[in-house]
From TrEMBL:
Sequence ranges assigned to domain RNase H type-1 in this UniProt record: 41-159
Classification via Gene3D superfamilies: Ribonuclease H-like superfamily/Ribonuclease H (3.30.420.10)
Protein's UniProt name: RNase H type-1 domain-containing protein
UniProt-recorded Gene Ontology molecular function terms: nucleic acid binding; RNA-DNA hybrid ribonuclease activity
Protein's organism: Solanum bulbocastanum
Amino acid sequence: MMNHVSTNWPGMVVLLQNYKPKIFSLAVTWKPLHGEMLKCNTDGASRRNLSKSSYFYCLRIHKRDLIIAKGEEIHETTNNEAEATVIKEASYHWVSIILNKVILENDHLVTVPIISRVWEIAWKNSTIIGDINALAQLCQVRIQHIVIEGNSLAYYIASIPFERAG
């Protein structure tokens, strides 16, 4: 419908009066985990490439109880590296306290398929991705993408340094 936009004002008014936008909705709900699984939500953030960066992750047990939440500013880097770094740091944490059934959720559309070996590593973070895959071999881990709305705690806290910076 929008392909034939009128160039005169009355024609545009008629077009807009008859326009019916398509509405998209997505319900995001928390689902309790089964058994002894733990859920780790991660988010890395970079204001722009090679700029101030940070990350945050939180680890919860199946009843929603928080085990740990950790975030920090990191060196100036790209968003891809910030996302990979947070997954690596979270992986170090759960391996160090001997947790072996973890669902890791991240909202980054590039990092998750690379770690899951759906895509090839085509960027400089191959060392970080290799470390993540090595850590993942030490426990039963499922790495999956989550929409940003389902990752709101990690997203919010990872973004705090940018709000303070203005």
